[in-house]
Amino acid sequence: MPDAPPVEDLGDGVWSLPVPIPGNPLGFTYVYVLSSSEGPVLVDTGWDHDESWEALTSGLKQTGHTVEDVRGAVLTHFHPDHSGLAGRLRAASDAWIAMHPADIAITERLNATPPRDRLDGIADQLRRSGFPEEDVRALLEAPNLIGAPAVPDLSLSDGEAVDLPGRDLRAVWTPGHTPGHMCLHLADGGRVFTGDHVLPRITPHVGQFPLLSTDGDPLGAFLASQAGIGRLPDADRLVCLPSHEARFTGLAARAREITAHHEERLVEMTALIAEGHTTLWEVTSGLGWKRPWAHMRVHARHMAASETAAHLRLLEERGLVRRTARGDIPRWALVGRAHRPT
């Protein structure tokens, strides 16, 4: 797990504040603090853990603020390493919490569904994807179910200005990593907060949830919003402030690299399907991953399957593969080819 860097004054009333994610290889999430005449506004809040809360509150003091001073927080998306402390922050400061309406809808659904029901739903999807029963049992027996994030108070749609007096900070809707993921463009400061949409080295995860859903096209939306973020005014002069790793420049070029990676992955999948890998489990387990499939834990396998499902969904939308069912398990074939016997 990487060591967290110090709180850093980036100039022009902007600070980076690393908030740890205990036990996670990502190490930390950058929370950004933007000052204003009526109190600071945060970009994201960090993971819900006492160690994370201590890092957030002590880091705020290093910026010359207290947690009680915080005016509000804009969440780039609902994932727990970004939204986890929103409830504690709101209770401590009466700050408003804003998010894109598509992700607000997800937090409302998560809060309305008991954790065990969510887990049972994932297990059912794994079974219907062809996963072996030992993987399903491992998922059901795994500890540490993650609770639902706090539901935000305010919705923030594409192009809307954040309530940050004296500054021009605007939402840029970039769906894909989540349906409501947002970047934030500080137009008067030459910066863009890229959340998890554009990272300097990591390729952000894009998954289909539920795994076998035929609704939406998250990867298609992600690739379109990669192109869109690269068209921001003076895109390659903007300083990019991501949620993980390190700040960078060359936004449009990095967006093209991420897009190229996914296009290569689509080619790899079509080759596997042509060879007769027809279920989601067969395609997912047949792909090359950073960690060998045999060594991946069940939660990592589920994430890999969701990413594979998103790629298959885009191949369906492009008319390159088709989905059929044999029993309860969907299968994919290249358009114009019959399934091979299994």
TrEMBL record:
InterPro entries according to UniProt: Metallo-B-lactamas, RibonucZ/Hydroxyglut_hydro, Sec-metab_biosynth-thioest, WH-like_DNA-bd_sf
Keyword annotations from UniProtKB, A to Z: Hydrolase
Cited SMART domains: Lactamase_B (SM00849)
SUPFAM superfamilies recorded: Metallo-hydrolase/oxidoreductase (SSF56281)
Keyword Hydrolase belongs to the record: yes
Record keyword Hydrolase present: yes
Stretches assigned to coiled coil: none
Protein known as: Hydrolase
Native organism taxonomy: Bacteria, Bacillati, Actinomycetota, Actinomycetes, Streptosporangiales
